[in-house]
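queue> pop job 88
queue> type: inverse folding (structure -> sequence)
queue> payload:
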């Protein structure tokens, strides 16, 4: 059975014809913090005490135990994806590593910059060490059962916007401030450093690796990256200041994917020019365009890249995807309410 699933993933990455869209699932909330009892407990405590999160506050073993239970829950679902554990995705890891304080609301964690100046960014080694501790422990827990992958790691514009303020960042980039260019280059290097250290620690799974958050197995080393703050830019700024940085990230390992929201569709042409980029993932956002409305965008992507779609998809969405996009290489990661809902969507897809 595992060999059949692996072959499906290999066909996806080779951009071969697929009988139906491949599926993986997250059960429960879209918010990573809400899916963990330990995450909810810690967030509530910090919010009540109005204090920032410290690396020592996170009990890595407890998160490992909860991920083990999530694996067992998803094991009962006949999905195509491979459950993938990742360092607790509720933490804004890149912001913490780049010097932000981390605070909490009842259902999420958020970053606040310690300083406004964008001089040389100094890595906070305590957060790097914690991230890599997560990787080691999860690798031990999952050895032979499930792979370990990368969580949400926000992109260079996202982090720079947090450090100096989003409006100030956009205006400085538009003004051609060379120090901003240096900052986003530094952040991209920190991202690649973190991913490279993770890949040194985690064990291969079935001869390959897996993209965390999406649970997509890859036949070689992989990473995925994002930059949601591009929604505040324009095509010219993205092409002039970001395209070469994204090219370098996409060239770092053999298989790479960019996470894209509909609010940033205007950068799609630039992304499609990045030859080493293997796939593009598109979110179905609450309040955003429907799956049917995004079909022309999906078709443009599929001419050059593999396509991943993420979100709360329903039977109607899957019907549109089957009718309009197959047999192209399409992978769906669906946030389902419960196991029964996930099983019904699998029936609809096949």
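queue> result:
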């Amino acid at each position: 059975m595992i060999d059949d699933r692996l072959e499906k993933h290999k066909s996806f990455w080779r951009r071969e014809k697929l009988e139906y869209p491949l599926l993986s699932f997250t059960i429960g909330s879209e918010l990573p913090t809400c899916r963990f009892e330990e995450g909810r407990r810690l967030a509530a405590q910090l919010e009540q005490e109005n204090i920032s999160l410290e690396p020592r506050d996170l009990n890595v073993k407890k998160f490992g135990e909860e991920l083990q239970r999530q694996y067992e829950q998803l094991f009962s679902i006949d999905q195509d994806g491979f459950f993938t554990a990742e360092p607790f995705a509720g933490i804004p890891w890149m912001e913490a590593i780049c010097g932000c304080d981390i605070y909490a609301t009842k259902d999420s964690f958020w970053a606040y910059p310690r300083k406004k100046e964008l001089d040389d960014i100094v890595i906070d080694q305590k957060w790097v060490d914690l991230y890599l501790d997560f990787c080691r422990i999860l690798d031990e827990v999952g050895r032979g059962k499930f792979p370990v992958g990368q969580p949400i790691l926000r992109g260079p514009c996202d982090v720079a916007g947090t450090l100096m303020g989003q409006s100030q960042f956009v205006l400085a980039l538009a003004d051609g401030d060379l120090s901003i260019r240096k900052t986003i280059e530094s952040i991209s290097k920190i991202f690649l450093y973190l991913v490279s250290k993770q890949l040194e620690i985690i064990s291969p799974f079935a001869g390959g690796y897996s993209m965390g958050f999406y649970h997509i197995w890859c036949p070689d080393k992989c990473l995925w990256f994002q930059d949601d703050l591009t929604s505040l830019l324009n095509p010219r700024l993205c092409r002039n200041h970001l395209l070469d940085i994204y090219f370098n990230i996409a060239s770092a390992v053999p298989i790479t994917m960019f996470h894209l929201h509909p609010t940033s569709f205007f950068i799609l042409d630039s992304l499609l020019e990045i030859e080493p980029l293997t796939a593009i993932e598109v979110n179905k956002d609450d309040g955003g365009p429907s799956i049917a409305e995004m079909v022309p965008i999906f078709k443009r992507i599929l001419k050059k890249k593999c396509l991943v779609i993420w979100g709360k998809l329903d039977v109607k969405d899957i019907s549109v995807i089957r009718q309009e996009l197959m047999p192209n290489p399409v992978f769906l990661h669906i946030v389902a309410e419960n196991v029964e809902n996930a099983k019904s969507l699998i029936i609809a897809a096949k």
